[in-house]
Amino acid sequence: MALVNAVIALALLEYLWFAMAVGAARGKYKVAAPATTGHPDFERVFRIQQNSLETLIMFVPAIWLFAHYVSATWAAGLGLIFIVGRALYFFGYRAAAKKRSLGYGLSMLPVLALLIGGLIGALRAI
């Protein structure tokens, strides 16, 4: 489980990076808090952070369930794919909204696999 927890910590550090990017974008595009709209480039960075938060809500419990009931090693591997997917999502979406698809897929497919695997594992343990 230590490897899985390390992957979760990396995912949280990545999210912190996204949050700091929002702060930098606020300054660069002069969008004062608490505003969440303004310059389109700011809005894309803000959406990256928000979408990533929404995804983390599924990712963290899903990786723990999968690690507990299926395999911690496979959970960590899927978690690393998630992190790479989120990074690709960040760079793609920041460049243009149309360029976010690859990163989205590479982050959501592991979450789906973790969640379904964790659910099946839990049901089998009953």
What does this structure look like?
The chain is mostly helical and 126 residues long. The protein has a single domain (2-125), classed as Four Helix Bundle (Hemerythrin (Met), subunit A) (Up-down Bundle), CATH 1.20.120. The chain has helices at 2-29, 40-69, 72-95, 101-125. The model has no long low-confidence stretch (mean pLDDT 97).
Describe the protein's topology.
Elements: H1 2-29, H2 40-69, H3 72-95, H4 101-125
Q: What is the C-alpha radius of gyration, as a whole number of Å?
A: 16 Å
Residues in helices, as a percent range = over 70%
The structural class is mainly alpha
How many structural domains?
Answer: 1
Could you write a compact summary of the structure shown?
With 126 residues, this protein is mostly helical. The protein has helices at 2-29, 40-69, 72-95, 101-125.
Note the main attributes of this structure.
4 helices, single chain, 85% helix, 126 residues, Four Helix Bundle (Hemerythrin (Met), subunit A), mainly alpha
